Structures are given as C-alpha cells and as structure tokens.
Amino acid sequence: MKDWCIVQFSTGGTEVVPSSWLNGEKLSWPPYPPRDTFRIHAAVKRRVHPGATWLTYAPVRLLISHDTFQEAERSLQKYLSEHCDTSDLQSEAETQTTLKRKHKPNPLYTYSDSEDEQPTKKRFPQAPRVTIPALTAPQSSPQPTDSRHHNAPPSFRHHSPLQENIPNDTPLQSPQHAEYDVEAFPIDDSRDSVRPLLQDATAQKMLTMLSDLTRSVNELREEVRAIRSTGSNESLDAGVLPLDLPLNSIEELNHAEAALTSQEAIKAMVRRFALIGGTTLEVRVRRVMAYAITNELASLLNWAGKKTKDHTKQKRAFKDTALCRCIFDGLTQQIGANSMSEFLFAQAVQKWLRYAPDRLGGAGRTSSVPIPGES
Description:
Layout: E1 4-8, E2 14-18, E3 22-23, E4 26-29, H1 37-46, E5 55-57, E6 61-66, H2 69-82, H3 92-95, H4 154-158, H5 179-182, H6 190-237, H7 250-259, H8 263-274, H9 281-292, H10 295-298, E7 301-302, E8 316-317, H11 322-335, H12 342-354, H13 356-359
Parallel strand pairs: 7-8
Antiparallel strand pairs: 1-2, 1-6, 3-4, 4-5
InterPro entries: DUF4806 (IPR032071)
Coiled coil: 203-230
Organism: Oreochromis aureus (Israeli tilapia)
C-alpha cells in the first residue's frame, strides 16, 4: 500500500489520511474536536502514529492511494468537484499524459464516391429580376430569342420555342394583352412600388431644408447690411480724431493727455477704438495698443509705473492716463460690460507692455536716455 490514502466514511465524508492509520476497514482518528481542523491537518501531514486514546471509525472504504500528499489532495479535489467514480481517479502519471490532436481533412478538398457521404450543396447565382414593361412604352419590333435570354420581356419568354403547343407563326402579344400572363408569375415588386414614395419624401425634405437655408441666408444678409451701415456711420463720425496716432514719445503722450480733457475728444477716441475688433479680448487689446502707441513709447511705460533714483530706469504709469480710459471704454462698448473687466484688461495691457522692448530687438531694455516730463 502506498503512503497516502483517500478514504470514505460511512456518513459519506472523504479525507486524505496516512496509510498507517488504516487497518482493513477500520480507521484510527486523532482525538481532537471536529472544529480543531488545524491540529487535525497538522497530524495528517506529519503522519502522527496512532495512540491508545485515538478514536476508531468503521467501516471505511478505501478509494485510492498515492505516493505523495499532493497527488492525494488533487485526487480528492477532483472527486469532490466532479463527483466522479473511483475508476476515474487516475494516478499522477496517467493524468499528465495528453492526448494527441486528431487532424480531420477539410471536406472542401476531399472527394469520395461513397454513397454514405452527403454531397455538399452547390450555390448557384441568383436569377435576375423580372421587369414589367410600362404600359405606355412603344412596341418594339420582335427579335428572335430563346429561353436562355434573361433580359427578354415576359411576353417573349411565354412564346419560346420550348412550348410545342404554340405555332411559330403566332403573333407576339402586346404589353396590354400580356399583362394577364405576367400576373401568373409571382414577382416581388415591393421595392419598385416603395421607391417612388421614398423619392417623394426625400425631395420634400430637401425642399424644406433649402427653404430654411434661404431664409437664414436672407437674415444674415440683412444683419451684415445693418452692420455695414452702422460701421460706415461710425467711421464717418470718428474720421476726424483729436490725436495723431500712434504716439511715438512721451512728449506726444503729454499732448494727447491735454487734448483728451474735453468730452468730444474722448467720445471720438472711444468710437474709434470700438471699431477695432478681434477674436478674443487679448487680441483686441494688442491691436488697440499697437494702433495707439509705438513700441518705443511702450518701452518707457508700465501699468503701475516705476520710480527709482536712476532716471534712466523710471517708467510712467499707463493706467493713470486718459488714453488708457478711452481704450477701456471703447473695448467695453464693443464686447459689452458683461464680457469686459478691469482685471482682464489690465492683464492684457501688462503683457503687451512687458514685451515691448523685446519687439524692438532688446534695444528698449538698455536705453539710457532720461524720460522727459518726470521730476
């Protein structure tokens, strides 16, 4: 007998035990509580020799024996999971053998004359559809044809030479008279009957879409005409400006501040700045600033100003100028007060002024000319 056995109790339970615990149909069992599975499994794995205090179970049935504990465990799991018979519990060497795959020939490339094999079904091409000639179509001169002519009208096929009971000199029937003969053949003309309805529905939908598109184009044309008229009027009003833009120096900026003390001059500049557009606020600010001042003057300006003991490094504050207020009012009038804020405007102006010396090739950063008009 091998070292490990799988036994079945009279109650139906199964377990892996050492072969030294089994004596015929009697089995010695450790005197541990049933719930103390840890100690029971430890005694099984260590193959503890039965003692005088051990319990005895009888009768028990020996299912199979193995040389190693792992083989016995696998056989037990197979027995419990698949509910197989004891004859199916093969040894480890038998379970490791794999069956060779049988190669079956492809029936498409084999040929056999035996009557037991059923022949494969051949697929023939679908027959062409039968077209019914229109009732108003003119009659064409009869031409000789045979039953193999698939494109021939139904009336021609009814009078084929295969019909022996019809003489050869029988005149061909007209489409009106052949209508009754054609009805004898079941023809699926559901698609032909539905196709005109689909074409009418498609045409109606296209006409509706075309009318909507025409209406939208007319509305856009009216809006463009109104915008052009408004822009032309505003350009005429803003044609005479109190300032000569762009400003090139601090002296011109001082003259512009003096000229923007009147309300008429401020309104004219606001209308002029409102005509300069762009895709975003930053783009509008860049365009307006480039239209109002040059990079030479922008290199001497700063948003909040910069005052130092070195006069060559001082910069004038742009936010305190009347020109800045006119630019802000013009952009607000263009895009609306809800989309315009002083914070976003200040960020865009600061960014444009910061890179003004770089747009000059770096010359504005090394300038040593003192700024006139500053004490």
